[in-house]
Amino acid sequence: MTAGAAGALFIVATALLQPGDELVVVRPNYATNLETPRAIGAELRILDLRPEDGWATDPDALAALMTPRTRLVSITNPHNPTGALIPEAALRRIVEIVEAHPVARLLVDETYREMTYGDPLPPAATLSPRAIGVSGMSKTYGLPGIRTGWLATRDVDLLTTFLAAKEQIQITGSLVDEAIAARALERRAELLPAICARIATALATTRSWLAAEPRLAWVEPRGGVVGFPWIRAEAGIDPDAFHPVLAGRHATAVGPGHWFERPRSFFRLGFGWPPPAELAEGLVRISRALDDATFG
Questions:
Q1: Is 128:99 a contact under the CB 8 Å cutoff?
Q2: Residue 204 belongs to a domain with what CATH number?
């Protein structure tokens, strides 16, 4: 148990990586998965995902980046910020690739796993002793305030190392927070159908808006509650103006592309949290900000 999924990611990176160690990681990505290894001094070998490929994580492309020095391969599934999904066959292929390298381990940030559209993928830790799964209560269950997450591995020695790292970082979690998390998980079968229905409604609203907004494009997500649209180059929109106009004039927030080491013409659009009316209004405000950020 950790202080949210972010705490789990920090424990994995600091326990497994030292200066000069090699990490293979996909990008765009949640900042912790890039910045913590950089702060440690690890050597990042980056697989840049592309919208023209549907933001797919190609197992062969990951394999091409690995060397005998690769200590960790870091992926997210469903992917943050694009919502792309690595199918189970491809995920198992990635596991095989990692197992073929003597010192490598696989980190799967699976925070959105239970929000896959369709049957959820198996937890990463069930696929191999070399795999580490990270998740938490913030996303699927909408409980970011209790700061409860976890990491899972079948490697007992590695788990002992992670527990030692946790002791140095946070000692223990809040028993009150963990009790609340336990109650939510006990009600999982009751809660998840309503959560998934709400996600489906929000996705449909977002899909309809984007279909009618010619200045934007996206690859529709296949899991989670985020997508990664971009402003079309031919739309005549100034991305540098769009984000401050959206926040300052229209009181609406998205995640600018540079947060994920992509151009500012991209942005992470979260559609799962707002109530239906608030989501619809927020999407309208994005269109208004595009109007205001038009060149000339």
A1: yes
A2: 3.90.1150.10
CATH number for the domain that contains residue 11? 3.40.640.10
| Per-residue pLDDT tens digits for 245-290 | 999 999 999 999 999 999 999 999 999 999 999 999 999 999 999 9
Q: Are residues 14 and 62 in the same domain?
A: yes
What is this structure's pTM? 0.94
**Closest residue by Cα to residue 269 from 83, 75, 48:** 83
The residues near 173 (Cβ < 8 Å, ≥ 6 apart) are: 1, 2, 3, 147, 148
Rounded to whole angstroms, how far apart are CA atoms 140 and 138? 6
Neighbouring residues of 44: CB distance < 8 A, sequence distance ≥ 6: 23, 25, 34, 37, 38
Render pLDDT for 181-202 as a digit per residue (tens, 0 to 9). Answer: 999 999 999 999 999 999 999 9
Q: Classify residue 119 by burial, with Cβ atoms within 10 Å: 0-12, 13-18, 19+.
A: exposed
Look at the chain and report how many structural domains it folds into.
Answer: 2
pLDDT value of position 296: 65
Task: State which of 144, 161, 186 marks the end of a domain.
Answer: 186
